[in-house]
Amino acid sequence: MPPWVVGRWLALVMVVCAGAESVPRITFQRGDLSRSVNVFSRSDIQHYDRLLLSADKGALYVGTRDHILQFSMKDPGNIQLTREISWASKPDQIENCKSKARKEAECLNFIRILLFYNDTHLYACGTNAFSPNCIYVDLNTFSLLANQKNETVTVDGKGQSPFDPQHTHTGVMVDGELYTGTMNNFMGNEPIILRSLGARPALKTDASLGWLHSDASFAGSFYIQDGAGRVYFFFEETGKEFDFFDKVTVSRVARVCKGDVGGDKVLQKKWTTFLKAQLVCNHMDNVPFNVIRHVAVMSPDDPQNTIFYGVFRSQWQVGGSSSSAVCSFRLRDIESVFSGNYKEQNKESSKWTRYTGPVSSPRPGSCSAGKFSDTDLNFMKDHFLMDEKVPPVGRVPLLIQQSVSYTQIAIDSVQGLSGPYTVMYLGTDGGSVHKAVIVKGDPESSHLIEELKLLTEPVQTLLLEPTKRMLYVGSRDGLLQVPLVNCSVYRSCFECILARDPYCAWNVPTQECQMVPWTLENRDHWLQDIEKGNPNSTCLSPNMRGRSPRPGHHPDNPPTRVANYSQAYNSIVELQCPRLSSSATYSWRHLGQLVETQVVTPGGSLVVIVRSDTLGPYECWANEKGFSYKAAQYWIKDPSGVGVSHRWHLQPGQ
Ligand SMILES: *[C@@H]1O[C@H](CO)[C@@H](O)[C@H](O)[C@H]1NC(C)=O
Ligand SMILES: *[C@@H]1O[C@H](CO)[C@@H](O)[C@H](O)[C@H]1NC(C)=O
């Protein structure tokens, strides 16, 4: 098949295959009191783009446009701004930026790096009106570090922060040295992976050897302290190894070594250990999710078990619909690709093929101690791409969404009753956060527990604080503090089990759905079933201590809504059925019989014309996994018998 046909074919497949689409089981609307959220916003502060937690987790530092803020985390129910620094671009820099045909709104200082430099200072970089600049923040006085002449100490931020706030960036601080990936120029066509600060000379990717394609866009970076120490960068770029007619984007992981000091004659002040490999996030014959957007890491301190979780979208978005997927990658699998075959480009045909020649020892590009020979360094100049691709864990995505665009991911490890579970928080460009648990199995899959509709604008950044069970969400207009869970929304054992939320379990003695305590005193008092979410086998087990409700009818599950109506004959009553779960099917019963004749609206409400034969009790029943429960119960009374007639209208939603 000619290569350009492949692109078209992929686009076609996209329309046909639905993939393993999943829908959040419960959706909480903005302002829903059962999922309360604390908000910080101030009219003069926008773009809450960078979040950083202090080591003792007592303070949260936030980089916004033109400001660095400090919040106290002492009181979990409250976001309290304690200190702030204003750090704006100078008027002449703003004028200069505007004179280069940049919009005024871009010619401000968007903070892009906010990291701990050492125990006493933060290091921050901003776009500074297309003239990137960095500063140190003294945490004691919460002011910018100044020299003896009382001038602010600034560092040229080129290569550390992008020029353009639209460009991506990533950075990690390792022992006073900053590793960054971003655009290195005003035009935004020269990406760089740079190590700067510290005592050693700065190292960078070579711009002329094609180590990074000019459109590289960064999604994350991580330091893994394994052996000599390595830094991994995740990004996407045009894949030059694919000589398709259409430009093909690929997702990559690149590795550089902490011990790298650059070459002497060859690759002077350049990385001598830069290697990159392709990451794959495909579902069978479905369209590839080839564009990585953000990455989170699990267990970075345990390299044997380190896993990276990435959110991807597809280059082939059909008809404006957005789709995304989550794939995970083991560090071990990445490492085995980096120790495998190299690719090289044939000088005559320009085709990329596997390099089959001899490889010296220590391997060029490896994180071995000591220097490489000039021959090895020359070899590294054009053997930076690995031949093998890194497959996702389980070989398929953990989650696929056809009409949701994920922007951010954060990962938590939750101790459930039967072991640890991985929970993913996924920010969307529509302002929601999805919470999903990874369900063990072969392959692993995920269950979408809930959707929190938080914002009307995209989620810019997520930060998890697992010890306080809080999620921080940064967006253009504010900072949100969101509790990770509210188990009390599940009012019965059945709902608690159906939710499959590993933070929650049914407490048998108290008869409540509660957060699983950090230390479980009596395992037998708790019920949970994350794998299957089967309430019949869990709630009706002998553990329930003498309770033997009839199967399919749980006595402790009161309807969410109960009301009486008394309206004139021939008037119309709309009975609403609260739809808690998207995985349930709902049906109406009148006088115990299934309702088939009346009109049910698309929202599930039953429209009843008051007549003598439509009076009496109405119930809306939910059925989920074979378990039925009453969601609502109404009574339409005989208007002549009551003598009072007034209009009733129930509010929609919860
Ligand atoms: C941290 O770094 C700053 C800036 O270089 C320096 O002034 C300060 O003394 C350092 N603090 C420690 C504890 O090393
Ligand atoms: C340094 O400058 C700041 C304002 O730029 C001023 O508030 C502060 O008092 C000065 N400190 C000294 C020691 O002069």
Instruction: Give unreliable regions as ranges.
Output: 1-20, 545-555, 642-654
The small molecules bound here are: 2-acetamido-2-deoxy-beta-D-glucopyranose
Structural class call reads: mainly beta
Instruction: Give the strand order, joined by hyphens, for the main sheet.
Output: 1-30-29-28-27
Q: Judging by the overall fold, what is the CATH architecture of the domain at 561-636?
A: Sandwich
Rounded mean pLDDT is 88
Could you state the CATH homologous superfamily of the domain at 561-636? Answer: Immunoglobulins
Fold-level CATH name of the domain at 561-636: Immunoglobulin-like
Topology, number of strands: 44
- The CATH class of the domain at 561-636 is identified as Mainly Beta
Content of β-strand: 35-45%
Largest sheet: 5 strands, mixed
Overall helicity: under 10%
Large-scale geometry: globular
> Can you count the helices?
7
Tell me the radius of gyration: 29 Å
Write the layout of secondary structure elements.
Elements: H1 3-16, E1 26-28, E2 38-40, E3 50-53, E4 59-64, E5 67-72, E6 80-86, H2 91-99, E7 111-116, E8 121-126, E9 133-138, E10 143-144, E11 154-156, E12 169-174, E13 177-183, E14 191-196, E15 203-204, E16 217-224, E17 230-238, E18 249-257, E19 275-279, E20 291-298, E21 307-313, E22 324-330, H3 331-338, E23 343-345, E24 352-354, H4 374-381, E25 385-390, E26 399-401, E27 406-416, E28 419-428, E29 432-439, E30 445-453, E31 461-465, E32 470-474, E33 479-483, H5 493-499, E34 504-507, E35 512-515, E36 526-527, H6 535-539, E37 561-565, E38 572-575, E39 585-590, E40 593-594, E41 599-600, E42 606-609, E43 616-624, E44 627-636, H7 639-642
Parallel strand pairs: 1-30, 19-25, 37-44
Antiparallel strand pairs: 2-33, 3-4, 4-5, 5-6, 7-8, 8-9, 9-10, 9-11, 12-13, 13-14, 14-15, 16-17, 17-18, 18-19, 20-21, 21-22, 22-26, 23-24, 27-28, 28-29, 29-30, 31-32, 32-33, 34-35, 34-36, 38-42, 39-40, 39-43, 41-42, 43-44
